[in-house]
Specification:
By secondary structure, the chain is an alpha+beta fold. It contains seven helices and ten strands. It has an eight-stranded mixed sheet with strand order 3-4-5-10-9-8-7-6, sandwiched between helices. Strand 7 and strand 8 form a beta hairpin. The protein starts with a helix and ends in a 23-residue tail after the last helix.
């Protein structure tokens, strides 16, 4: 429901309550308002309370309804990953997004899935989180690529571009790959605790690819990651 209607419900509810109060009868030196019959006052007051409560509830839940839900995100987490990793809703999601955190039993691998409401907010988060201007064009296939910091766009014959990928080394020397999936507006952040095991990281990285059917080709952002 549009925000303006939700606010209008609250305002009309307050006015109805005020009308019911005034209908109880007011007599002052310069103003006299006759008393309203009991049942009309009760009905008006009841309607006012319903509109205030309903409008307030809609206002409080509008952000959650307008944005993506965790149920939507869970549908995109592949079963090949959940078969050996534990996934749960993560409280520290990016603004406007919903996030899941998946961890392996030994803690060596961690994957974050962030589902955004649109492609532009997804690309903005990706560019900010990996600091694109500090990365070089690289295939992210060697330790040196991670240490230098690499980036590239990827796709296939069916779709023009599926997303963008960046690889880096964290402060603890662990390996990080962050990539976008423009089919679903999802950012995937995968972490591998073994600094030298790039081949092993790339072997299981394919297990993190979001799943699901997209009704159309990937969305094209107003400003692509390469331009930011």
């Amino acid at each position: 429901m549009p925000l303006a209607i939700e606010i209008l419900l609250v305002i009309v509810g307050i006015l109805l309550l005020a009308l019911a109060l005034i209908g109880s009868g007011i007599s002052r030196r310069l103003m006299t308002i006759p008393r309203m019959h009991k049942w009309p006052r009760i009905i008006i007051a009841f309607l006012g309370i319903v509109m205030i409560v309903g409008g307030g509830w809609l206002l409080m839940t509008s952000d959650e309804k307008d944005g993506p839900s965790y149920a939507d995100l869970k549908d995109h987490i592949p079963s090949t990953l959940t078969s050996w990793m534990t996934c749960e809703k993560h409280s520290e999601a990016p603004e406007g997004a919903v996030e899941a955190k998946c961890t392996s039993s030994d803690g060596a691998q961690t994957v974050y899935y962030s589902l955004f409401p649109n492609v532009n907010s997804m690309q903005a988060f990706y560019a900010k989180s990996v600091t694109l201007e500090d990365l070089t064009e690289s295939e992210c296939s060697s330790v040196e690529d991670f240490q230098t910091g690499g980036k590239y766009s990827y796709g296939n014959d069916e779709f023009p571009v599926l997303g963008d990928l960046a690889c880096q080394v964290g402060n603890d020397e662990s390996l990080w790959v962050t990539y976008t999936d423009r089919r679903f507006n999802i950012v995937v952040e995968a972490n591998h605790a073994k600094p030298k095991d790039v081949s092993g990281f790339n072997d299981w990285l394919s297990d993190t690819t979001p799943v699901g059917s997209a009704d159309s080709t990937p969305a094209t952002p107003t400003q692509t990651a390469a331009q930011q």
